[in-house]
Amino acid sequence: MEKTEKEPHKFGLVGKNISYSFSRGYFAKKFKELGLNGYSYVNFDLANISELNDLIVKTENLKGLNVTIPYKEEIIPFLENLDNAAAEIGAVNTVKFNKDSMTGYNTDAYGFQKSLEPHLKEYHKNALILGTGGASKAIAYVLKKLEIPYKFVSRTKREDGYTYPELTKDIIEDRLLIINCTPLGTYPDVDNKPNIPYEHLNKRHLLFDLIYNPETSAFLKNGRAKGATTLNGLRMLELQAEKAWEIWNR
Fold first, then answer.
1. What are the two backbone dihedrals, phi and then psi, of residue 99, each rounded to the nearest 5 degrees?
2. I need a labelling partner for 44 at 20 to 30 A (CA). Which of 28, 94, 164, 215 fits?
3. Annotation says 63 is catalytic
4. pTM
């Protein structure tokens, strides 16, 4: 048990439409378990990232932030420093406040890698990343480290990927690791899902959904129906939160 700190310490989550936040409940429980009575965690729901500077000025004792959709990339110009991994990824989900500066980190990559690795089989040699936002950049960074070739899937054509209508039986059967980095299917819109040809999935597929609410998204349900192994984003979130806590307390 860590000793109680009397000095107020405030942390928070920066995002948009974040009433559903995992982080606030997770850290509130953590502070209680550790007896940290002067610690608090707040959701900062910003209509635009331009509101960030005003938020920082008005919020006393701010020690660290988590960052979520849609600001993981947009927050970077506001930061004085970037951790090497965050710079390479091009997205930030954790900010530490130093005396006169803010440093950005990416703990999504750590959380994803540690939650994915126990489930990888030798035949998971190629991957599809659904979505091209800030979260997808951390996923691509990890797959590169693991030497798993990947292609992005998006609504618009890219040189390094496919559009959803271009996904064929051969592509799906060749890429046995599929990661959903889109918000499609998040509560309350639980019937929504990425538009991939689910009929070509099989028991060798591993489907990873960064969504954690609902526990089993429509994307994962359709994978399970074909015998695929499925993982939601809860363990990844727990791991990235613990890594953020470690960074804030260095």
1. -55, -50
2. 215
3. no
4. 0.91
Distance CA 208, CA 231 (A): 5
Residue indicated by tokens 């927050």? 75
Q: For residues 106 and 89, is the Cβ–Cβ distance under 8 A?
A: yes
- Helix, strand, or coil (residue 204): coil
- E strands of 2-155, at which residues? 9-15, 39-45, 62-67, 81-82, 94-97, 102-105, 127-130, 150-154
Cα separation values, 217 from 12, 153, 169, 180, 190, Å = 26, 19, 22, 10, 7
Q: Sketch out the chain's domains with CATH numbers.
A: 9-106 (3.40.50.10860), 110-235 (3.40.50.720)
In whole angstroms, what is the distance from residue 83 CA to residue 85 CA?
Answer: 6
The answer to whether residues 233 and 215 touch, using CB atoms and an 8 Å cutoff, is no
Catalytic residue from among 72, 137, 193, 243:
72
